[in-house]
Amino acid sequence: MMAPHEDLKPKQLEAATHLAKGMSGRETAKIIGVAAETISRWKQDRPFVVYLNQLKRAAVRDARDSLRILSAKAVGTVKKLLNSPSDAIRLQTAKYIIDAMLVDQKSAQQGIEPTEKESILFGSFHA
What we know:
Layout: H1 10-20, H2 25-32, H3 36-42, H4 46-82, H5 87-110, H6 116-122
Helix pairs in contact: 1-2, 1-4, 2-3
């Protein structure tokens, strides 16, 4: 059995790549040299949609992996800031941690997931 994207033409593969990166249909059409209507039509084509969704899922996985790595560095930075000789920096850092914990605790108590912004800013503190 062939993978769905094996049926796609090179311009469709290129379009899917641009769309998966968040580019609009019009921008994508202009870059690859097709009409915007062509992109709209491709978005109705099952093999194209399957491939586009695969690319989007891969992009999300890559972003999450990057954020995990960066979050470890961020925690290290926060630890260093807590040891700063400056009272103001230590206080601001402590406030940041407490605010993050309160947001996370409130979300956990209400049985809701943090917003995407909260997750990026504060990470997740509950298991």
